[in-house]
Amino acid sequence: MKKVYLTFIGLLMVMLVSAQQNILIQNDFWKKNPSVSTIKKAIKDGNSPVEKNSRSFDATALAILEGASVDAVDYLISLKEVSVNTRTHDGRTYLIWAAYKGNLPVIQLLLKKGADVSLKGTHGFDAINFAAFAGIDNKELYDALINGGADITQTNNDGASAILLVASRVKDASLIDYFVSKGLDINSVDEEGNGIFNYAARGGNIPLMKILVDRGIAYKNTNKEGANAVLFAAKGTRRGAPDLETFEFLASLGLKMNTTDRIGNTPLTIISGKAKNLELINYFIKKGVEVNRVNEEGTNALLSAAGNTIEIVERLATLTKDLNHANKDGVTALAIAMKYNSAEVVSMLLERGASVDVNDKDGNSILYYWATTNSVRRSATKVDQTKLALLKKQGFDVAKAQPNGNNLFHIAVETENMDLLKLALAEDVDINAKNKEGYTPLLKAALLAKDTQILKFLVANGADVKATTDFEESAYDLASENELLKEAKASIEFLK
């Protein structure tokens, strides 16, 4: 029996390793434009054509995105286990990805194989809208989709149709005129009231904006939020914020840079978290945009910029009246920098007078923001204590519990980070302290743990297994009800 069990475990490990190494869900495999015979061999060797990677891309989606041959895509979708309408990353189908890449031959193949043109991804993009969003300027491609049954009037989740979505990228009006000829209205707006000029401004598309102005398209109107083209442009696209030339052009049309929307956002509030160009920040300051203006959420330009470059953060910090200003959630610029920025930025803020003794509305201290940073949370490597050392130089007590009662042990449990646990031990943090909810670190771990590693660490280092919650529940009681531990078939007898 033991030999059979060990054999089973061995096979299971082989399967797991194989899944982790599935070359069909690795971009590099498809970048080499593999032949059909190479793909067949990969599948024969145990690589699954339907498995998805951590971002929900499968072999067919990656083949399309990396420009594999039509024959390769044809072979993949001919496999009995592959559906032509498979949903992948963001709920997008193969047809939507092919449209995004502007790959007409693959689109024609997928349509022939029965791809559903009406399907949308989770953001509301169908194939036509996603092609427009990508700036694909190929009328034959759109014709193929329309002839295949696609409805060109469809909009994304923001209420934007193809004629709006394409405006950030196309440099002339030929595709705009094509969409008009197919029934779209050049004067249409999205759900927030943004028209084609705003979308062109958002992409910094000066050539198209000039054409639209010449055609008499309105450009000084505001949307439902009270934002004009300047504020909409400040939002930028996924490619980033527009450059200085865009705003200079908008200013030449008489649009004011010193403007706000209905919730108090200025162009500076919006753009300071996106722009990497200090010249652009200085442009708005020179135009009289108020650095200390806060929106309804309590955010000012410095808070927006706190995760940006040190040059931009420092420039705004020099003009901010209160470096310890917090938004409605009680979050300061220093807290944001502790979580998302470098030790250099943290040091600069501290030198300028940012306080380490601030807590957000939930009772989390500045320590919490460092401990939950993406580079620390669930880290498998040693945590970077550089920023923590800066806090300690300011007299910050790492061992002190937060106003909500959580100490570093509680935070380490929440973030599932063993190195934080070891740090808490080294800093002599109270391992049996109860937070405001009545949980010791061990009790909290029993509630949240996915396995017994953290629980065993806490017990081995003095956590009291007899401590109970305010409802007289012990760590053993809580662990007994923990579904994740049940699924893992974890032994919790050591908690008795």
Q: What number is the mean pLDDT?
A: 93
CATH C-level class of the domain at 397-496 is Mainly Alpha
Q: Give the SSE string.
A: HHHHHHHHHHHHHHHHHHHHHHHHHHHHH
Beta-strand percentage range: under 5%
CATH superfamily of the domain at 397-496: Ankyrin repeat-containing domain
State the end-to-end CA separation: 31 Å
State the major sheet: none
Instruction: Give the total of beta strands.
Output: 0
CATH topology of the domain at 397-496: Serine Threonine Protein Phosphatase 5, Tetratricopeptide repeat
Helical content (DSSP H or I, runs of 4+):
40-55%
Coarse structural class: mainly alpha
CATH architecture of the domain at 397-496: Alpha Horseshoe
- Tally of helical segments: 29
Low-confidence stretches: 1-19
Shape category: flat
Please give the radius of gyration in angstroms: 28 Å
